[in-house]
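Reopening: structure tokens for the zinc ion complex, inputs below.
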Amino acid sequence: MTAPTARVWTVVKRRDAGQCIVCATRDGLSFQHRQAVGMGGSKRKPECVEGVTACVPHNEAFEHRLQALALLRGWKVRGWVADVSLVPVWYPLLGGWHVLTADGGREWVSWAAARALMVDVYGDEYERWEVAA
Ligand SMILES: [Zn+2]
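Re-run output (same inputs, fresh job):
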């Protein structure tokens, strides 16, 4: 996957309080690509809305062990979703859902609003993830 520009990575880390959004470590942080691109996929540099800050162990877990949870929480986004900015992100350390904005910010949204956004994007699939979680 293509690394973000230094500017985007700096903005994303600042937005995420300079810590892994799951475990709060400030060491060994990485740009978590929310949306995987396939082999030979886009060479385009990701924008702020396309990444969150995660430690390397969490970044790797989102691809495997924690993938279902990562989808449920918006840390990962299905590859076919056309606009990743429509998928809200759960910030466990803040205890709230946020919508990421193109300028590198984030806006709090209620649990109900976040769930409605998820169901708009994923439909019945999101409800199945909730049941499985
Ligand atoms: Zn972590």
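The longest helix spans residues 111-122. Strands lie at 29-33, 51-55, 89-91, 96-100, 106-109. Marking as resolved unless the reporter disagrees.
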